[in-house]
Specification:
218 residues; alpha+beta; five-stranded antiparallel beta sheet; 55% helix; 14% strand
């Protein structure tokens, strides 16, 4: 018999996973990992906006205005002086974490209808995938600062920039989104275990045995 189980814990698990996935997407695509100082020599229309750089994108001030775009024109084959190898690795691990986390968001919905697949608990498998996603993003967050000695960063932040020291730059919102995503992902992995026990409660089982196809229990 087909049935759908929704509990407060499973709903929190889904929302936590979804928000973590959205924050990770923001961190991945936005060029706000490092925010550089403004260039006062440029015209006033661009002077109120700050140059910045992300994992594969950047924003810069020009005499004609403010321009954002990607600098990984050849992907991972882009020259290391343009796209540091540390950032290439960070991009790989961020993408891997994002893919895993996106799959787990779909899995959280699947657990409303099924509790196991191939004899394995979907909750446990999802929790493991979320832990792996968290570790992958954690590696990316560690690798990006290792590339702060690159010429691109030194042009933005000053010649004193080095790994884990951004010199004249400040940490941008994209970096903090990545950190928050890690915390929520690991929290979701823990919540998944609670969600499984919540779905297997006696009250839920009785409702299912009584023939209810939609079971909503706080």
């Amino acid at each position: 018999m087909c049935y759908v189980i929704i509990t407060s814990v499973s709903l929190v698990w889904f929302l936590c996973s979804l928000v973590a996935d959205m924050l990770l997407a923001v961190s991945l695509v936005t060029p706000k990992w490092l925010i550089g100082p403004p260039n006062p020599s440029l015209n006033s229309s661009a002077s109120h906006r700050y140059p910045s750089v992300g994992i594969y994108t950047r924003c810069k001030q020009t005499h004609s205005g403010y321009h954002c775009g990607s600098f990984d024109l050849d992907g991972f084959a882009t020259d290391g002086s343009v796209y540091p190898w540390e950032w290439k690795l960070a991009m790989f691990f961020m993408s891997l974490g994002f893919a895993l986390l996106s799959l787990t968001v779909a899995a959280t919905l699947l657990t409303c209808c099924r509790q196991s697949a191939c004899g394995k608990s979907i909750h446990n498998m999802t929790a493991c995938a979320q832990v792996l996603a968290g570790i992958s993003v954690m590696l990316a967050m560690f690798l990006h600062p290792l590339g702060w000695r690159a010429p691109r960063v030194q042009r933005l932040c000053g010649t004193e920039a080095e790994p884990f020291y951004p010199a004249d730059c400040s940490i941008g919102i994209s970096f903090y989104c990545g950190i928050l995503s890690i915390l929520l992902t690991l929290a979701a992995a823990g919540i998944s275990l609670k969600a499984e026990s919540s779905n297997l409660r006696t009250r839920v089982r009785r409702r299912v045995e009584a023939g209810s196809k939609l079971v909503c229990i706080p």
